[in-house]
Amino acid sequence: MILIANGRLITRDPRNPYFENGGVAVEGTKIKEVGETKALREKYPDAEFVDAKGGVIMPAFINAHSHIYSALARGLTINGHNPTNFFEVLDGMWWKLDRNLTLEDTRRSAYTTYIDSIKTGCTTVFDHHASYCEIEGSLFAIEEVAKELGIRTCLCYEVSDRDGKEKCDAAIRENADFIRHAAKEDDPLVKAMFGMHALFTISDATMEKCVEANNGMTGFHIHVSEGMNDVYDTLRNYGTRPVNRLLNMGILGEKTLLGHCIHVAPSEMDIIKETNTMLVNNPQSNMGNAVGCSPVLEFFKKGLLVGLGTDAYTFDMTESLKNVLTIQRHNACLPNVGWGEATTMLFENNAKIAARYFDDPLGVLKPGAAADVIVMDYKPFTPFGAENIDGHIIFGMAGRQCETTMCAGKILMKDRELVGIDEEAINAKTLEVSRALWKRVNG
Questions:
Q1: Which one, of 283, 261, 281, lies nearest residue 272 by Cα?
Q2: How far apart are CA 158 and CA 222, in angstroms?
Q3: Contacting residues for 266 by C-beta, under 8 A, at least 6 apart
Q4: How far apart are CA 38 and CA 40, in angstroms?
């Protein structure tokens, strides 16, 4: 048994939301009890004690949309790349990168993503992968790294027609093979979805192949109306709007996750609601790509389940939290909106999204929930309690303040030191691999 205690405890459990000096007793992969530090230490005197040292103990973060494949682009400049629109961003940067990713590049990208996630307090990552240089085995390579590092993840491969039929068919097979593998293994920390890029790079024939290959095994993870490319292409070539097209193709449903959804019409929102389909917003990436502001406030009015991701622009969920609040206020020209929506997205809806794939409750510290726990090095200098927790997180916390990270009862980082992970050796190998990758990209 492990006892993480002696800190301000945020549980996200409405029945016991906050303990001024509290702790979490963990047995196996789940939480056994939460409560006051003194009482827990007396009840479990033989437990391994992890001292929060007055910091904030809280549920680990969940990232509802990211891209492992982009990890090795940090600091990269592509010769001649000066995009003036979203398509040029994709074609000149990200597609050029993924066309050069080998399986080893994918592994190193996974190490980088998951280690950064651990170090910023995120233990669950929904990823949307692409590596059109080497497709076969790429999801399995990522899974190996996730298992080695002890993180929880849901994987898929990005099907697209952009590199021709052979590559497209290989991407479909990679999804189907990994979905069957994940179902057979039934690992509580590894799940699978069926990935597709965006509608403007996918024909109806390819969508039909995806639906057939999936055969109802899982949900889809797809980019929708991130840029106007999707809207124009679907209207011109299919006579309808993107969400309608997905409905007609049998893509929507309670296990399907739609990424971005910036340029969706009210009628499309009604379809999303009716089919109980999930959404994920990635505000920092959307601003960086200059594609617009997702109508999150309208999503909430419609009662849609919308979560929060990073799109790999960052791996720090507190950055996305701050950005979704500010862009919604900026877009609405109102300084008094977005607070409830932003915090609900990260702290409630991401847990609801995860619950459609992972069996153990996430995003909450209570008996029976997954033992995904973090300790933040945060010492408040203003009153701190159940009524203003989110204000402290938004204005006072950053992911790099995470000191201790636990996933499924296993400590992955303690006092800012990764446990059982030789970070220096991993980084040295990743640097070697990334240098070779950059040469190919700019070759």
A1: 261
A2: 8
A3: 298, 302
A4: 6
DSSP 364-429: --STTSB--EEEE----SS--STTTHHHHHHHH--GGGEEEEEETTEEEEETTEESS--HHHHHHH
At 258 the three-state DSSP class reads strand
Specify whether the CB–CB gap between 365 and 18 falls below 8 A. no
Residue range 142-193, pLDDT digits in tens: 999 999 999 999 999 999 999 999 999 999 999 999 999 999 999 999 999 9
At 192, phi and psi to the nearest 5?
-135, 145
Name the 3-class secondary structure at 259. strand
Bridge partners (DSSP) listed for residue 410: 407
Average pLDDT over residues 310-318: 96
Q: What gap in Å lies between CA 109 and CA 72, rounded to an integer? A: 6
- Split at pLDDT 50, 70, 90, the class of 267 is very high
Would you say 60 and 15 are in contact if contact means Cβ atoms under 8 Å apart? no
pLDDT on residue 222? 98
416: left (phi over 0), alpha (psi -120 to 50) or beta: left
Share of the chain above pLDDT 90, in %: 99
**Each residue of 345-403: pLDDT tens digit?**
999 999 999 999 999 999 999 999 999 999 999 999 999 999 999 999 999 999 999 99
SS3 assignment, position 126: strand
Instruction: Take residue 3 and report the two structure tokens written for it.
Output: 């006892």
Query: What gap in Å lies between CA 291 and CA 296, rounded to an integer?
Result: 15
Residues 6+ apart with CB under 8 A from 229: 86, 87, 198, 200
- CA–CA separation, 76 vs 97, rounded Å? 10
The span from the CA of 64 to the CA of 420, in Å, is: 26
Helix (H, G, I), strand (E, B) or coil at 3: strand
Check if the beta carbon of residue 139 is closer than 8 Å to that of residue 153: no
The C-alpha atoms of residue 414 and residue 141 are separated, in whole angstroms, by: 26
Could you tell me the two tokens for 32?
A: 């056994």
Cα dihedral sign, 145-149-150-156: negative
Is 285:316 a contact under the CB 8 Å cutoff?
no
Question: Helix 103-119 crosses helix 138-149 at what angle (to 10 degrees)?
Answer: 30
Checking if the pLDDT of 443 tops 90, the result is no
